[in-house]
Each structure stands twice: as structure tokens, then as C-alpha cells.
Amino acid sequence: MGIVVGYVANPEGRAALERAGAAAVRLSAPLVVVHSRRPGREVDAEEAGLLAAVHDKVRAELAEAGQSVEVREVPDSDDPADDLITAAEESGASLIVIGLRRRTPVGKLILGASAQRILLDAPCPVLAVKPED
After folding, report:
1. What does the pLDDT read at residue 106?
2. CA 87 to CA 74: how far, in whole Å?
3. What CA–CA distance (Å, rounded) separates 66 from 85?
4. CB contact set of 105 (below 8 Å; sequence gap of 6+)
5. How far is CA 92 from CA 36, 111, 116, in A?
6. CB-based burial, 10-36: b 16+ in 10 Å, e otherwise
7. Nearest Cα to Cα of residue 124 among 98, 86, 88, 70
8. Which residue in 30, 29, 35 sits closest to 6, CA to CA?
9. pLDDT greater at residue 114 or residue 39
10. C-alpha 50: how far from chain center
11. Taking residues 62-89, what's their average pLDDT?
12. Do 48 and 9 contact (CB within 8 A), yes or no?
């Protein structure tokens, strides 16, 4: 039973990855990092470098703790929620970790469509985290 985390190169994605990595170490569980990209969206050199550095940091922390990490790149993803749910089902995950944006009071009435879908359709518990200020 592992942990699946949705990662994008932004503060929310980094917060989710850090929390998922810490949980994987604490629970002695493998980690599956899912990085989905919208169709036609290219990853620029800066994002690719950041992505590699973050993955390397998490890999090092998990390796030190004797845990494995798998990174699944999903180019041309139609639905990031599907990508995470599928990864959780395939890996028998015990937890999914996602990052959430801070929202205005009115925005709090509406949760992001992907986050809502993951919370409702996930085959396991979901931990939603926000980046530190």
C-alpha cells in the first residue's frame, strides 16, 4: 500500500509532494508521483529543471529511508483527476495527496473541479494540503 501524489510545478504541487514524501517515510510506504500535463502544453527548461530538482530531493529523502519512488509523467492528459485515481487504483494506494490553492471567500464555495472529483471518486482517503505562506 503506497501513497500517490499529484504534482505540478507550483507552490501547491511542491507542498503536496513534500507532505506525501514525509508521509511515505513515516508510513514506510512507496510513493507514486503523478505529473499530468494538458494537451499541447510543453514543459519549458525552467520547469523541467525545477521538476527534476524536486524529484531528486524527494528521491534522496525516500532512498535514505529505504523507500521507493516512481514518477509517472502523463503528457497530453485530458483529466488530471483520472490520472491520480487510476494511479491509486493500479498501485493499491492507501492515500492520495493533492495541493489546493488558497481561495477568496466566494471562491471557497466552489472547490476546483479536479480536487472535487478526486475527493469524491478516490478509492482511498485524500489529504489536501496548502502551501505555507
Report:
1. 47
2. 11
3. 26
4. none
5. 20, 26, 21
6. eebbbbbbbbbbebbbeeebbbbbbbb
7. 88
8. 35
9. 114
10. 15
11. 87
12. no
